[in-house]
Amino acid sequence: MALYLRTLRRSSRNVRLYLLTTTLQGFTMYGGINAVALNLFILRLGYGPEYVGILNGTSWLALALFSFPAGQLGRRIGSRRPMIFGQALTVGFLILLPLAEFMPLGWRLPWLITTNAMLSVGIAFVWVNSFPFLMGSTTVAERSHSFSAQFALSTLAAFAGAIVGGLLPGLWSRLLGVPLTRAIPYAFTLLVSGAMLAPSLAALIATREIGDGHRQEERRLEGKAPLSLMGAMAAVALLASAGQWLGQTFFNVYMDDALGMPTSLIGTILAAGQLLAAPASLLAPLALSRLGAGRTTSLAQIATSLSLLPLIIAPGWASAGLGAVGLLATVALLNPVIGQYQQSLVAPSRRTQMSGIITTAVSVGAAGSALAGGYIIAGLGYRSLFLLAAALMAGGALLFWAWARHQGGKPGEPTQPSRQ
Predict the structure, then answer these.
(1) How far apart are CA 115 and CA 89, in angstroms?
(2) Is residue 218 situated within a structural domain?
(3) Is residue 350 domain-resident?
(4) pLDDT at position 298, please?
(5) pLDDT band at 98, cuts 50/70/90?
(6) Residues with Cβ < 8 Å from 138, sequence gap 6 or more?
(7) For the segment 328-383, what is each residue's pLDDT rounded down to a tens digit?
(8) 7 or 32: which carries more pLDDT confidence?
(9) Which of 79, 144, 170, 257 sits a CA distance of 20 to 30 A from 293?
(10) How many domains, the chain?
């Protein structure tokens, strides 16, 4: 922790503002309030798991459609301005989405689909340009710690957000005098989430354009961005994300619909997963130095697959909690490692292109999972859903290992620490 603190103290203004942004995103959207309340809001509006899948799938498809254009725009004008544009869309449509509760019955589903899709367009511009922005704002010496700190802060904030997301519907229920079987307590919870995300837009606006000072050490990579490399990374991302989001999207639906767990307990379980995810993220630099990027990525992907075994072997609330906590923690270790690794494979001028292709693949995998997930549940049940998710994540791990071996048998070599 002392090393982390020293590294972050040396970090630039851009990095600190970016970390503030990701902290607010974690608290509200990525694992926080929305992770607990959004799907439950959809269920309370009278839509079943199939519609949860449709809405999440549509959201991911919008993300897939706009990820590559977002990367190309970032490549032309830099990553900062597309991130600001995307965050403005995200905040605006996050506030508009829960207004579906106040719409006429016939307008609700179109409103949900449209606002959710536009929200995802904003997320595409932020996601695709965030890793290149962070790479360009850091030196090699501080990069792995900055990536890990990003995910650790986001997951710690998500821990707090999940607790708040589990408690706010009950609070609004008492204040408004309506039962939790109604959608309005969840609508007000989501409105609070949108309002709390708004300062992140101001933080991004306060950043500065990235200069060329930190790019000198990577000039050797110029021109080294073969499409085969990007295609291989995209195929791995497609399989892994399909499995991850097949499980993650329907965790709270399973707990609510199949197990009848109270919202407060669902929020507590998801919060526990986020709490364990933070130290898992902080372990990434140590794992990289000891095992190397290839082996760390493969082992983390296998661990994500194994985390779902409790739900497959012994369905129940304890297994659901163990599976949710395990998946969130192992994904938290995986994300900073593979994100930095993918960006390090290409020259600075190609980073947004790589990020756009990877985000498109992730979005397609997640969209397919979300769209199919509701129908898998209806036809085969939740156990089959989690079994398929585990198999897809295991397939992504094997594909990555095969690719890394093909590159020269280097997946197990440790990453040497920077001497800068």
Answers:
(1) 10
(2) no
(3) yes
(4) 79
(5) very high
(6) 11, 12, 15, 146, 214
(7) 888 877 877 787 778 777 777 778 888 888 888 888 888 888 778 878 888 888 88
(8) 32
(9) 79
(10) 1
Q: Is residue 3 part of a domain?
A: no
What is the band of 119 on the pLDDT scale with cuts at 50, 70, 90?
Answer: very high
The rounded distance, in Å, linking the Cα atoms of 240 and 307 is 14
Residue 409 CA to residue 411 CA, distance in Å, equals 6
Going from the C-alpha of 127 to that of each of 10, 43, 296, 356, the distances in angstroms are 25, 28, 23, 9
- Where b means 16+ CB within 10 Å and e means fewer, 20-50 reads bbbbbbbbbbbbbbbbbbbbbbbbbbebebe
Cα three-residue angle 336-347-124, rounded to 5 degrees: 55
Distance between CA 133 and CA 12 in Å, rounded?
Answer: 12
Q: Is the pTM of this model over 0.85?
A: no
- How many Cα atoms are found within 13 Å in the side-chain-facing hemisphere of 316? 5
Q: Which residue has 């979300």 as its token pair?
A: 370
Residue carrying the six token digits 């199939």: 50
Using CA atoms, how far apart are residues 144 and 397, in angstroms rounded to an integer? 22
Locate 370 and state its tokens.
Answer: 């979300």
Tokens of 152: 């650790």
pLDDT digits (tens, 9 = 90+) for 20-47: 999 999 999 887 898 888 888 988 998 8
CATH number of domain containing 48: 1.20.1250.20
415 pLDDT higher than 50: no
Q: Which amino acid, one-letter code, is at 346?
A: V
Is-contact 169 267, C-beta < 8 A?
A: no
For 171, the token pair is: 């609070």
CA 219/CA 223 separation, integer angstroms: 9
> What are the Cα distances from residue 293, in Å, to 83, 145, 228, 341?
27, 14, 19, 7
Domain-located, residue 276: yes
Instruction: Give the Å distances, CA to CA, from 141 to 138, 239, 285, 335, 398.
Output: 8, 32, 11, 19, 30
pLDDT computed for residue 272 by the predictor:
79
**pLDDT > 70: what percent of the chain?**
90
